[in-house]
Each structure stands twice: as C-alpha cells, then as structure tokens.
Amino acid sequence: MAAHLKKRVYEEFSKVVQVPHEEAPAKKLRLSKPSKSAALHIDLCKATSSTDALQYLLQFARKPVEAESVEGVIRILLEHYYKETDNSVRLKIASLLGLLSKTQGFSPDCIVDDFINTLANEKSHQVLAQLLDTLLVIGTQLPDSPAVRHRLIEVACKHLSDMYFGVRNKCLQLLGCLGVAASPLAKDGGLRDVQSIISDYFTDQDPRVRTAALKAMLQLHDGGVKIHEIIYEQQACRLLWDDYQQVRSAAVRMVWVLSQLYPESIVPIPSSNEEIRLVDDAFGKISHMVSDGSWMVRVQAAKTLGSMLQVSPHFLEQTLDKKLMSDLRRKRTAHERAKDLFASGEFSSGRKWADDAPKEKLDTNTVNLIASGACGAFVHGLEDEMFEVRIAAVEALCELARSSPSFAEKCLDFLVDMFNDEIEEVRLQSIHALREISTHITLREDQLDTVLAVLEDSSRDIREALHELICYTNVSTKECVQLALLELLKNLSKYPTDRSSVWKCLKFLGSRHPTLVLPLVPELLNTHPYFDTPEPDMDDPAYMAVLVLVFNAARWCPTMPALFSDHTFRHYAYLRDSLSHLVPPLRLPGSGLDLEDSRGAWASVESPQLFLQQSLSRVSTIQNLEAPGAQELLDLTIRDLRRLGELQTELEGSADFCATYLGCQLLLMKALQEKLWNMAVPLCYKQHVTATAAAQQQILEETYKLEFLYSGLKQRHVASVHHVRLQARALQLVMRARSRPGSALESLTSSCEAFVQDLASFQRLFALELPQLQDGFAEELLRAMPRLSCCSPLELVTVLQATLRQSSLLPLAPPEQVQRASAAILEPTGESDNPLRFTSGLVLALDVDATLEHVQEPQNCVKVQVLYPDGQSHVIHPKPGDFRRPGPGRHRLITQVYLSHTSWTEPSHIEVRLLLAYSSLSKLGWGDSLDGLPTPEATVEGTIPLSKPVKVFIMPKLAAG
Can you give the pTM of this predicted structure? Predict the structure, then answer.
C-alpha cells in the first residue's frame, strides 16, 4: 500500500501539477516606529548643564533619522535653540540642523522662515556663521525654488557688513552658490548685481575674506554666469601681488578664467601707448607667478600656463628664453631720437659726474609686463628647487607643445635635459611628456645620446617608459638607428628581464625607419657578398632583437630581403611561428614563404565589419531550421567569428564577444534538446542529468565572462547577457525539480522566490531595453509576472519548462569598439628545468611580471592565484603600488608572490595565473535599483581566469641537521 502511494506521488509530480488549496488570510501588521523627536525632547529636558546637552546632541548625531521624522526633530532642536544660552550648544544645534536638512526625501522649504528668524537675535559670530552655512545647505537642496534663493541672497547681503570674517565668508559663499540667476539687489541705496557686490570685498582688510570673494566669483562662473571684463584690470591683476598666498592662488585662477572668456579683448600696456590682447597680457602676468615666493602658487601658475592655448606664438616662445624682449618696449623713430639728442644740450664736458647719462629713466615696475614674466618662465619652472614645480612645468610644456609643432621643436632640448633630474618622478614625467609630443619632433644624434643614457637607470619604470618613448619617436640619421640599437642591446645585456620590452621597442623602431635600417642590414646580419659567414645562434636574445628590427623594416622596404642569407629565411620562419606578435608577415621571394598580409586578403573580399554583421544576421534565421541544422549553423558561425578575431585585431573584442554569446546559446540549445525532457521524472536523474548540469554551469560562467571581461559594451548588450543568465538559472531550477522530486516541494520554495526576485531585478534594471527583447524568454515571463509571484513552486517550474522549450534566439546587435581584458605572464617563464629550492616552512619570494590589456581599475580586481600539486590554492591580492600604467589601456604588474609548503620528496610544478575578481553589485548597482534590498544577484562574487597558467618547478626541502 505504501509503495502504491509513493508511486502515485511520483506520477503526480511528473505532471508538475498541484491542486490549489485555500489558505487562511494573513493578518496585516502595522509597525509603528518610536518618535525620534519625542526621544530627543526627553533627553534635552533631562540635561542639567550645557555639557550634558552637548553629550545628548552628540549621541543623537550618530543615529540615523528617517525622512518623515526630520521636521519634528528640527522643531524640537529649534525650540531648544531659543532657550539655550550657551554658545557651544547653539553652535552644535546649528550644525545638526544643516545635517538634517540634507536627509534624502526631506524638503526643507517648510522651515526656511524659522531658520531666517534665528539670525535676527543671534549675537555670537561663530553661531551666526554656522547658521548661514545651514542656509547654504538649504539653498542647494532647493534648486527649483527661486523665491527661497532670492530671500537667502538678501539675508547674505544684509550680514555682509558683519565685523567677523567667518560671517562675511559664509555670506560670500552664499552669494557665489545661489546668486547664479539672481536679479539686481537693493544695497547701499541702489540696485546692484551680485558680481558688483562680491567684487567690493576683493579689497577687504582680511585676506581670508578676499580669498572667499574670489572663490565666490569663481563659483558664479562655474554656475554659468559670465564674469564682467572690467574685473580683470581693476581687481584681478592687482590681487596677483597680494601678500597672502591663498589670495594670489585664487587670483591666478580668476585671471585665467577672464583670459578664456575675453581672449581677443584689447588692454593697454601700463606706461606706454601700446595695446595687447588680453590673453597675452594674462599669460605674461601668470608667467610672472612662476617665480612666486610660495611653491604652491608656483605649481598652480605652471599648471595654468599649460591650458592657455590661445596665446600668441611669439609670447609662447619667449617663455624658453631668459633674455628680455626688445619688442615689448616702444621703439622710437630716428627723428625722435635726434630731437631728444638736440634737446639734451651740449656734449659732456667732463666737469659733471655722469652728465652724459641717458636722460630716459625707466621704471623697473613697468618692465615687468612680459620681460620678467613670460621671458624664461618655463626655464625658471624647470630649474625650481621644488620637484612639484618642475613636474608642473613639464606637464604645462607638454600641453602647449601638443597644440604647437613649432613650440614642440623649441622645447625639445629642455625636456631632454630633464631626463637627468635627481627625482625619479620628474624624470618619468619628462619621458611621458616627450612621448606625448613625439609626433611633432625628430631627435638629433646629440639629443638621442642624452635620451639613451637613461637606459642605465636602475628603475624599471624609467627604462620601460623610455622604451615606450623610442617606439614612437623619429630619428634623423642611420647613425641614430645604430646608436639606439647598440644602447638597447647593452640594456638587454645588463637587465635581461627587459627582453620583451626591448624587442617590442625594436619592432617599432624598425617599422618607423625602414630606409635608415636598409644600409645597416649587411653589418647587422654580418653578411658578405662573396664569403659565407657563420650562422648566428638563435638562442641569443641580442641576435633575435636584431632580427626583429630588420624584419619589421623589411615589411616597408621590398628591396631589403635581397640582402638576406639563406639562414635568415629559416630564422624568419622560426620567429614568425614563435614570436608572431613581433615579426610581421612578409613576402619573401623563393623559399616558399610567400605570406600575404591578412589585411589585403580581407580588403579583396569584403570589409570585416560587414562580415561580422552578416554573420549575426544569418544566425537570426535559426528559428526556421530544425535542431541539427540550427546547431550546425551556430558551430560554423562561432568558428568564423573566432577566426575573424584572429585576423583582425581591431575587431578581436567584438568578434570574440559575439562568438562567446553564440556559444552560450548553443549550449542552451543542446541542453534543451536532451532526451531527459521526454522522460518520466523518476528516470531523468539517472540519464543525461550530469551533462545538462555541466552545460548549465558553463553557461553561467560564460555570462560572467561576457559581462566583466569586455569593456565598451552598451546597455542593450549587457541586457542580452543577463537574459541568457536568466535562462540558465531557469534551467537550473527546472533541473533541480526534475532530478530530486522527493524533496522538491520543501526545498524549491526558496529557490523559486530567489528566481522571481531575479526576474523583478531584470525588469527594473533593463526597463528601457525590454522593447529590444521582444519574443524572448524574459518577455514571456514578465507577461505572467503577477501570476508567477503568487503561484506554487510546481506551477512556476511548469511555466519555466514550457517557456524555455518555446523561447527563441534573441538577435544580437553587432557591438562596436569592444575590448577584451587579457593578461600575459612574462616572468616566471616556466621554461627552466632547475627547481627553485627553499627550506620547508620558510618563504620563497617568486617574482611575477605580467602585462594587462584593457583591464579597468586593476588595483581592485586583479589577483594572483597559486595552485599547489596537492590541490591547495592561495589567492594573493597585489598592492596598488605594484601596478604601472605604461600607456592607455595597458597596465604592468610587477610584484612578488611568497610561497611556502611542507617538504616534498621530489620537485613538482606549481601553477601561477592571474584572476579577475568581479562583483555584480559593484558593476551594476543593483542595491540602488532595488531600494537598498540585497538580492541573490546583487551579492554574486567570483573570479575569472585572466591569463594562461605558468608552471614553476619548486622543491621545498627539510632543514639541514
């Protein structure tokens, strides 16, 4: 009888039908929260002294306050504020009022009048300043209320005459933040605009107020208000000579802002009849600040010069010359000079001392216009005693040289001289600056000699930055190419770990200078027209470096292969297979090595982008095919896309993304075509379950790779990835129900609730992309969402199973400019057969050197994994200082991994690889979209293999004795 009942249960469950039963209606509970205002009122009433009140207020500040309770709490605080006589307590209450006004969901417009009334009777200047700061918070919280903003500006104008500098500072800050769209205000018996009111305090007796006035005016500019040009001559330029460094610093920015607003305006030169463009005049005045007494002002002035791209070329070039410009003084005509000579009287009789001295007297202050400013400004900056100023000067030179090729040529010597600076950071910045302007310059032999001397530097960062510089720099003669090659070979001999960087440098050097490498080929390859020369050793890194240089030059010089020996052709075939990223495809006559450039082959057929689009459009017709034909079409398309990525590097990321996406669809299709779907539930656990579960797990892993390994994806592509992941989770839920029918009724409830939450999250995140997912799996489920949220687990499984079997493949739009994150471990190479020996229980430091491509924020997501032969796995998170950035989109990881293990009887290999850690919450911000509630999807974290594993031979041994 029991067996019969058990069989009956199995049969009923296999049909996945459940009879609905009536449940008692759940009672609704109403939760009431304790009033924060009442509790605060009780605490403040219990306070017997100001110290007790401060303690209660401090304790209250540590507790969160809900938006609906804020107004009541503020009323209680204001009530106690009026009763309190101690300034420190009122100051703390004023501070708390500002913090409460920032509460999300609370609109402070209902308490503006109360706050303004508190200002009328306040006698303490510190409390008044804090209350004005609270009004500033309220004003920024109400951007759509012009009436409130106007009232607050009037309050600020009223208290601008306060004797305390802190009150005046807060008033000016209020005017700067809220006076963006203010109408003229009544002050001093007339209507004045906000700018004129603020400019009155440029001459305040307190330097802190002068600084606040300048910052308020700059805030107006940031808010979209155009500053009046008259401020330039009357106030801003005068403040450059202020005694207070903070005032001078703010004045530098003010002068720069005005020079960008009115660059072509004409301003007079003092003590002269000449006129000058405003941007040129500002450039000269800011250049003079490079010699300021404060190093922070000098840094700001140097950085500001780099952004003044509209300055005239002759002023710009004068910054590199310490000699005074004769053109800055008005030249007199010959008639005027003769007239002055006649008016001077008789010639010198010698009876008077200096009676023949020039009658013209110069005021040294009037020569400071450009002569002591722009003249030699960058020379002073590059020779400054503070390395921060030197770095700022180098950056400014770089910015100006990028927009002016003629200036780039003139500042080349100065940047090259900075390669010998005593501070490593300055040397590194000067190398990067020269790299930025490399398209405008050509190095002479003497300059190249100075540059290459840096290859002796012990810093690996300096050497690699210099390799990067040589990659993109043009040289003038073949002697320069030969000199660069010799110095790089010395670098390779002294620092063998620079091998890959040196080879890459020579690759670009050869491709940029093929005509200069051509006459050097017989000497470099040691060939002779009549005699056979010995074949070099292919294991010599120096010889391989020479071949990389020659082969890359031969790509653009078709006559060069005629100078090659027979063994050179064989060596080319070897290097083309082993170092294909360094050796290009060449057309070598004879020897059967005619390799056509892949770009030419693609150009003769069709564009690669068109091929990618056609491949994806061909897959969209898969619904019209039977299962075997559809799978075969997906297989062929995936193969074509992967081959496209191999041949076209610019489409590698897009093609690989599409191939991986279609691979997920193929796995899903195969899993849904398994025979287990046509079997009874009691039998499906024994057949095909393992294969389907493995496919489902692989689909999930691939979707995380699609989401986190590829950068540049649009939101619709991310939605497609999450759509596939949703299908994989539905398949996982159905498989669990069919493989464990006995316990499904009890264990599936939580899984079904989690899936419904995932579906709701998908709907919220990709609401705008849902029209592009029509006729898909998610759309079918969302239509039945109200019924799914209240149905039983067995009914949900029934719907999922039917929807999965009927869902079609969603078309994928071709992605553009997608990059795939990747990594390659350079050290250790894994080629050594000699084990690294160390004492068991102690530590072995293993140097790890890796290159990272298109990895965003590697300091937070890249980890090193060490896998031991016994299955133990250690994951190490490198320090942020171990990451370098040699170029855009590329990073370098140079770190040490510490290994330790018990003793082994014989040497064994360990595996070292790089992992990419991911978190769905950090990537998409699910918590915000779900009102702060954690979901199963939001807490998913894991790692993705980022590089191929490298095997290292180690041998821990027992300690001697």
Answer: 0.68
